[in-house]
Design a protein that fits this description.
This protein is of the alpha+beta class. The protein contains 16 helices and 15 strands. Bound molecules: glycine and manganese (II) ion (MN).
Amino acid sequence: MFDKNTFVNRRKQLKNKSLKGIALLLGNTESPMNYKDNTYHYRQDSSFLYFFGLDFPGLAGVIDFDSGEDYIFGNDVDIEDIIWMGPQVSLKENGAKVGISNTAPFAKLFDLVKQVQDEGRTIHFLPPYRGENKILLEKLTGISSLVIQSKASLELIKAVISIREIKEDQEVKEIEKACATGYAMHVAAMRMAQPGTWEQKIAGTIEGISLAGGGMTSFPIILSQNGETLHNHDHSQLLQEGKLMLCDAGAESLLHYASDFTRTTPVGGKFTTKQREIYEIVLAANNKATELTKPGVTYLSIHLAAAEVIATGLKDLGLMKGDVKEAVAAGAHAMFFPHGLGHMMGLDVHDMEDLGQIYVGYDDEIQPVDQFGTAYLRLGKRLKPGFVVTNEPGCYFIPALIDKWKAEGINRDFINFEKVNEYRDFGGIRLEDDILVTETGAEIIGERVPISPDEVEKIVQKG
Ligand code: GLY
Ligand code: MN
């Protein structure tokens, strides 16, 4: 874990945000798979991890904005736990690691919350996303678990986002480690992209690489020769020569920082002309996005610039028509690129999405756009140095969407549906890199995962 001062300083930053009352941050509990003691791999809550650093279940942290005191609540183990889990560090010692001397058994949290309520002070909490913590918050505060999410503190949400969105150098180093593992995962997947290979065998192999690197995957692996399904977790097919394998996967570092890359690989190692043409368009959009990523620029404008690159390329191929700027303004590109350009990344692959995308990605100046495609953009606001984002443009041929737009005449002035029909079984291409916004521009984090079509072909051919 990071050193004690990291957590002391982070809590100090939060205390400097002028909140009154207390912040109550719940850690995560174990999550059973099929019976209580057979649990999913444990994952701590990211905001708890950020401010309190301790990576095990059964904890809650309190920051008292009025007195300046910090507390950790949790239970020390007994002899039975030691028999099953081995010797454990005491809560006191764990508290010391993150600069907290006020530690107490978990039940004492109820007393503290009651006292704060009796004093008429505010209890700020973040929106809970797990059932166990919704119920716990209900027991602590008396607010029904059915509505507790809507009672989360907007002040605390905004304060936490304003701190977590700027990555410390040591956090960027952790993301670099996750990216190095992600690099190995993607090159392994490319090498395995041979006709007849079971998609699940590739997905399982690269998940193993993530685990061997020290962390879980940062999200369930997306890997399929039906890449036109944006989040395809079905890995049941055997790869066919001539298809494209889309792999969207990343790892967590030991300290739970994420990577998130997408590459698209020709099965058997040779792009067809059609595939290479679309690939080059998506690559140009990806490169354009990286070139434009810099402080002070709105991410919404970069998303729209990437959409223009895609629309221009598709127009050159005869798939779109008319004025490109007008086409993008009308949202016509979204039949091919129906998602956002990218998102913030950090302790979560979609960083802080639990706190509300509207607060993470938007602000008073830049509001979400209510148009199909761009409406899925998770980040629109102006970039700042220290942001980590992913740039992930794509181009897909989704038969159901093509049929719907054609039948309803949606954007018929900008789309050549006859020509599009020739691409019905194309699949999809997405190319995603992880980017650090610097003081003057942006840089790709770590060594760039092979992306030029020649490079990718060579890796597959070498096997
Ligand atoms: N890589 C998955 C996503 O960004 O949604
Ligand atoms: Mn992503």
